[in-house]
Design goal:
Blueprint (H helix, E strand, L loop, with lengths): L1 H39 L3 H6 L13 H9 L2 H32 L5 H13 L6 H10 L7 H9 L3 H11 L3 H9 L4 H12 L1 H17 L2 H6 L23 H35 L2
């Protein structure tokens, strides 16, 4: 009886700690967003005179959103971001699956060296090679064009190759052999068998990559400073200058920029979890 009672107490304590941790994580995530929402509904004078946690005096004050939409060129940023997302997703899916297929299914002399180079590139911090990368992009005449971030997004996502390889490990090579006995080429095997079976992983990686691109301000601001190439993240830079900053318009712009990536993730989140589960149980 005492043993059962103590187990119930431990279970209760475990549940309490779990909910405390869950509530704490929710507060860490949502409180900053809530403060930005409050700021977007205030005037600059009200923002400076009141606490960040205080409610705005007018809950339906949307002038800041109108200003952020027009002055921040949100539609232009949405168009450029859409191009970056679509082309990067297609390039990552094609190059990533083909590279993983070759590394998993073929044996060649330099295979271990290639895998080692991939590992080394993941270990080295990207910022330590930024000067060399910038010089390379400039020498290719891609600076201040959409091609600069596209080349980086498509060519440096090494982690996805290892995820694809993990999926390929769970796909029997007998499927390849059976298809080749029927006269299929390596390209036909990849196109008709391997790539369709990798679609769950492709969907998962594509969605995560898209959200990353939508939230990336570093590469897009560094390689595309021209106003005509503004994206959703870099459009926010128009509200901040060395001397003055329109903080309330910036808050409204942050919410407008946040909405597409948040809606995109909420709509496709089931594909993320499905891809992760398929990678864990596919046999």
């Amino acid at each position: 009886m005492n043993t059962s009672l103590s187990e119930n107490k431990r279970q209760l304590l475990s549940n309490v700690l779990y909910y405390i941790l869950f509530i704490g994580m929710c507060l860490i995530v949502f409180i900053p967003i809530l403060l930005v929402v409050f700021g977007s509904l205030k005037t600059n004078a009200e923002l400076g005179a009141t606490s960040p946690f205080s409610l705005p005096s007018h809950l339906f004050y949307f002038d800041n959103y109108v200003k952020a939409f027009h002055d921040g060129h949100i539609l232009l940023g949405l168009r450029n971001t859409f191009v970056l997302v679509v082309v990067s997703m297609a390039g990552n899916a094609l190059l990533g699956t083909m590279t993983a297929f070759i590394l998993n299914r073929f044996d060649f002399k330099l295979k271990k060296i290639v895998l080692l180079l991939f590992i080394v590139s993941m270990i080295i911090p990207a910022y330590t090679t930024e000067i060399a990368r910038f010089q390379l992009i400039h020498s290719m005449h891609l600076y201040n064009t959409l091609g600069a971030p596209l080349l980086i997004y498509v060519g440096t996502d090494i982690m996805q190759i290892y995820i694809y390889i993990q999926f390929l490990e769970k796909i029997s090579q007998q499927l390849d052999e059976s298809a080749m006995m029927d006269g299929a080429s390596y390209f036909r095997v990849f196109r008709s068998i391997i790539f369709p079976l990798l679609l769950p992983a492709t969907a998962t990686l594509g969605i995560l990559k898209s959200v990353t691109i939508m939230n990336d301000i570093y590469l897009q601001n560094l390689y595309m400073p021209k106003k005509e190439l503004a994206t959703l993240p870099t459009a926010l830079m128009s509200f901040v200058s060395e001397r003055t900053s329109d903080l309330v318009a910036l808050c409204a712009g942050i919410i407008l920029v946040l909405l597409p990536s948040m809606l995109f993730y909420l709509v496709f989140q089931r594909y993320i979890f499905k891809g992760l589960m398929d990678g864990a149980i596919k046999g």
